[in-house]
Amino acid sequence: MTANPGRTEGDSWDLASSVGATATMVAASRALASQGPDALLDDPLADPLVRAVGLDPFIRIIDGELDFDDDPLLNRRARIEQMTVRTRFFDDFFTGAAQDGVRQAVILASGLDTRAYRLRWPAGMVVYEVDQPQVIAFKTDTLAGLGAAPTAERRAIGVDLRDDWPEALRRGGFDVGRPAAWSAEGLLPYLPPQAQDRLFDHITALSAPGSRLATEHVPDPNAFTNERLQRITERWQRAGFDLDAADLFYQGQRSVVVDYLSGHGWQVAAHAVRDLYAQHGFEFPEELTAAFGDLNYVAATLK
Ligand SMILES: C[S@@+](CC[C@H](N)C(=O)[O-])C[C@H]1O[C@@H](n2cnc3c(N)ncnc32)[C@H](O)[C@@H]1O
């Protein structure tokens, strides 16, 4: 069963609604992790971006007015560590690809990600950001208004990732003849299972040998059970995010990312998030698995 009554085929959103608000939620965690003298992340634009979206609960979270000390995933420290593990994984992925000579990055579902503005990209780097048109336009305008300058050549592509985004990317200047580094961070559950396969098919078709891809992987093809979605929803609602995960995520059996990519010519390395926590010296919150399944971050290279 892959239908979702909360979603429709061509549904669209801004950063304050539906799937778009989840981008603001994770940006609020990056803003938190970038605060203070012992900050674990350095994403100074996350704070003004979240404020510009204007969703009150997220502003109160970054202002320290809302904390959930008793919640193993929502308390301030847990949010910071969760986002630090995730952000550093994808940062290191892009930095490593650039060091190895890749000069095109494609950030799929870029949301309020500011890597195009904060990573130290080499000269000649082109960073594509792909997300819904309203999301792309809001971020571009807000950051321009803040006087922020990209640290690479940023090309923003507003398109639905269920549509013909490869054509939009090519029109934006993407060079299929050169290797690229792709990321799909925090995206897959918001795509229907077939659209997830299509996304990887498109990425593979657009990738010259040596291209790389970073994304998330849960070994269980039925990871998003009703119980898990309920846990996520309860947490979102406690945090003031008044939406139902079951209305945003697509349930039903989906391809296992590692198997799918391996079967399509990618050499895949999966990193259990539990191990990444340990590498950072953080204690792994078991509740993360209860809510999201056995999460891994994967980095793959096209053979
Ligand atoms: C949880 S946010 C993650 C944003 C960003 N990757 C990050 O980690 O901060 C999910 C993002 O996926 C985007 N997204 C989901 N489905 C999409 C679709 N069909 N087309 C374009 N963007 C989509 C949303 O607009 C949103 O920005």
UniProtKB/TrEMBL annotation:
Protein family (similarity comment): Belongs to the UPF0677 family.
Gene3D superfamilies per UniProt: Vaccinia Virus protein VP39 (3.40.50.150)
GO biological process entries: methylation
NCBIfam families documented for this protein: mthyl_TIGR00027
UniProt xrefs under InterPro entries: Ppm1/Ppm2/Tcmp, SAM-dependent_MTases_sf, SAM_mthyl_Trfase_ML2640-like
EC number: 2.1.1.-
A GO term, aspect molecular function: methyltransferase activity
Function: Exhibits S-adenosyl-L-methionine-dependent methyltransferase activity.
Protein's name according to its UniProt entry: S-adenosyl-L-methionine-dependent methyltransferase
Pfam families listed in its UniProt record: LCM (PF04072)
Alphabetic keyword roster: Methyltransferase, S-adenosyl-L-methionine, Transferase
